[in-house]
Amino acid sequence: MIKVGDKVKFLNDVGGGTVTGFVNKTTVNVEGTDNFVIPYPISQLVNISETERIVKNEIPKPEVEHIKQATQLTYGKDEWVKLAGKDSPDFYFCFVPNDAKNPLSGKIGLWLVNDSNFLVLYYYSHYKDEKFRLAKFGLVQPNSKSGLESIDQSDLTDLPDFVFRLFYFAEEEKKLHPEVVKKFKINPTKFYKEKSFQPNTFFNKNAMLLHITPNLQSVELDKLTDEDLQKIIHSKEVVSEPKIQERTRPVDIVEVDLHIQELIDNTAGLSNKEMLCIQLEKVESEMRSAIKTNVKRIVFIHGLGQGVLKQEVVKLLRSKFPKYYFQDASFKEYGYGATMVILKRG
After folding, report:
1. In contact, 258 and 329? CB cutoff 8 Å
2. SS3 at position 316
3. Are residues 203 and 311 in the same domain?
4. Exposed, middle or buried: residue 229 (CB in 10 Å: 0-12, 13-18, 19+)?
5. Are residues 212 and 314 in the same domain?
6. What is the pTM assigned to this prediction?
């Protein structure tokens, strides 16, 4: 059985590489030594990694790869990779597409990166329907990364929240470190934008990096005594000059352009239904933001076309925001191609 990360050789051709993802049930992407990824039939591959495991009678190890060269120290049976200046916890949740310019053309790998000198014990879960479901757990070596799972375009319509519980520790510690808990809710529109994936030091491809580690300054602040806090507050009062608080006026009107090219960078491979979902998600998120910030009116520019988007916007407003009145926006300014929602009178 071939898995992501396995080393393979081509059965009828010269060469081979590493499996980076699945195209479908019969084809995988193979990355060669030249970093060029090609799709290849599974039936025409020889799994070197599986052969080595059978010969050595070993249990398959989790996908772990050192992200930087370093002096290796032994820690029991495992390798301990230590780097100077990495003695603070620094962990990342990463999305790595096979093709960052067109992320949804193939699989997107999900990774946990440990950019520190600590060992990390992790529990990785999905949160959906008010339930946590364990997806993977394991141990990540210092200054290493571990593959978690992969997703593709079909998964984006129903993404769960991604939840991490991390316990980090080092050799001969004098104190226990607090558990790190982090939940990520990912907006699917991020995957349609090329700029979401940036060059980085952890992968030889552009990736989306999300920081797991909490604000250590706030963690340390929690450890201060009440007396310490009073001293800090008093010193701030002495040094700081009083500031005049200004009332922020609510914004009168906000315009939101729903044309798909204004929302995402690349529509290649998207169906009309998928583009419509992105547009309606934008309507809902902008409505909630406008209500929260006391905006008086919001205009959704949807254009004319066949009127499908306008009809769906109206349905969404009636079902999720029934208390707010809406109407066609000014014909002089928008023609027949916009809908205005009245959030606040006056």
Report:
1. no
2. helix
3. no
4. exposed
5. no
6. 0.50
